[in-house]
Amino acid sequence: MPLDKELLEIIVCPKCKEDLVYEEDEERLVCKNCSVYYPIKEGIPILLIEEAIPIEPEDKL
């Protein structure tokens, strides 16, 4: 389920406050600055710093 466009315009990384990149196919929000992503579960972004998952080199944008 795609995220609401208005939500995507205001949502930022909880750690560095930079914009997040929405990857709909992967169901995740990516922070290029922190090199992590936040999963989206059942249409809900999990934006807890402790839930951030490091981006593997092959996953980099």
UniProtKB/TrEMBL annotation:
Annotated InterPro entries: Trm112-like
A GO cellular component entry from the record: cytosol
Pfam families for the chain: Trm112p
Domain of life: Bacteria
HAMAP family attached to this UniProt entry: UPF0434
Stated family: Belongs to the UPF0434 family.
The protein, known as: UPF0434 protein V4D30_08605
Organism ancestry: Bacteria, Pseudomonadati, Nitrospirota, Thermodesulfovibrionia, Thermodesulfovibrionales
